[in-house]
Structure formats: C-alpha cells, structure tokens
Amino acid sequence: MDTKKILKKHNIRPKKNLGQNFLINNKIAQRQVKHADIQPDEKILEIGGGVGTLTQELIKTPGKITVIEKDPKLHKILKKRFGEKITLIQGDAIQTDYGETDKVVANLPYQISSEITFKILKKPFKKAILMYQKEFAERMTAKPGTKEYGRLTVGVDLYSNAEILEKIPQTAFYPQPKVMSALVKLTPKNPKYTPKNQEFFLDFTKAIFSQRRKKLKNAMKNTRHMLNPKPTKKTLKQTIKKLDKTTEKRPEKLTPSQIADCSNKLYTEIQKTKKQ
C-alpha cells in the first residue's frame, strides 16, 4: 500500500521532533532487505517502523522480525497491518532492551543516528543495513586526514567495517529531507587494536577531536577535564613524554590504532597514579 495514502488515511502528519521522514520508494526498501541477506530463523530488528514500508519487505524473508516504534499512532498502524507476523515493541529504541539480534535493518531517525548506532555496535550482531544522512555516512567511512574524519569514524572503526552501499535521493522520502541519504553496511570485526577501557577510549577520542587542528599534546592538555578518570597534570606530562613524536601530530592525522595507543598509555598512567 502507498505510504502517503496510509498517512492520509490515518490523518498523520510527520513529526519533525521525531525526525519522521518516511521512505516512500519500495524499490529502495527491497534493495535494503536484499543487502541484509536474511537467512531462515535469523532474528531481525527494525528500528523506527513508520507505517511499514520496510517492514512489508522484511516479512517476505524467512527471518523473525522485531520492530520498535516510538510513535503511538504509527505503532497502532503497524499492529493493524502486520499483526502476528512481527514482534512489535512500542518505545524509544535508545532506552529499549531489544534482546539478542542477528541483523539490524532500519531507516534510522536521523537525530539519534549516533546514539543508536553505538548501541547496536556494542551488542553482538552479524550485519546491519542502515539508512543515514549522506554526510553522517561519509563521516562513518572517512579516512585519516580528510575533513570528514573524526571521532565518529574512530568509534565505528573500533567495532565494525563500515561501507556505503548506495546514495539515496531526497525524493525517496516524504516529506523530502534537505539532504541526501545513504545506505550503509556495518559488519563486526576483530579490531587490530584493543582499548584497555572502551569508554575511556571513546571519551578520549571525543576530547581530542574537539580540538582536531591543534597538536595532540596541546589537545590532550586542553581537554583533560573531559576524561573520566581525569588525569593529573603530572600524569599527562609523563604520558606525552612517552608518546614522543606522535603528540606533535594533529588528531585528524592519526589512525584509529594510533589513537587507541595514546588512549591506552594515558589510561595506564592514570591507573599507576591511583595505586600510588
């Protein structure tokens, strides 16, 4: 059934505060599901079911489909359309414990893209096929030294390989967003580096990229208050000395593994100080 007709029938106006831009191109939904390569009995999660444009393609697969939808009106429509064919959860995807899942296939509400992505990445999964704003997708897949490269790139790289599958025009959505979108495939990986503490690593990355164009040693000095545990000035000085030439580079020039090495050395020095 046509997405616009469903919205009109139920007198639903897209809510900007929920980032509601509904996919109206069925062929794109079909390609998105095809990219997921869903196998029998795999647990599939869709976040933000809307009126079911993507859901109606997912139920054609042999997977077990769970859909999370926050909007009560849309939840009601999904329940009426798909009934027992899906497991339907009404709630905020960031707050909801959706249990184990094999694959995530979703057109994410753009304003929660970062939060929901890291929630997905931190749990076991086989593959995710997700729709993002094009600019966000380019930041996820950027290379060191480019203007798009930043803490999002480094954070995503810790957990997965990210690949842009295709770019999607504004006309594929209603209402039309101001920017293009992109389909991204996330595949879990065993990283070449291991942070001693993942949360500290992510905080460290966020801190140094807030001053991406300064030398790393200056960025570290200026942002130590952003870290938990917070290093003393003495601890920071010792770490910078151990890192040597690396701290002369800008954060935007460092690879994810170099950033992890810096984070690990600082975290180790902080733990040493605690024991003294």
TrEMBL record:
Enzyme class: transferase
Protein's UniProt keywords contain Endoplasmic reticulum: no
CDD domains (alphabetical): AdoMet_MTases
UniProt-listed Enzyme Commission number(s): 2.1.1.-
SUPFAM superfamilies attached to this UniProt entry: S-adenosyl-L-methionine-dependent methyltransferases
Biased composition range(s): Basic residues: 231-240
Family in the record: Belongs to the class I-like SAM-binding methyltransferase superfamily. rRNA adenine N(6)-methyltransferase family. RsmA subfamily.
Protein name per the record: Probable ribosomal RNA small subunit methyltransferase A
Organism: Methanonatronarchaeum thermophilum
Taxonomy of the source species: Archaea, Methanobacteriati, Methanobacteriota, Methanonatronarchaeia, Methanonatronarchaeales
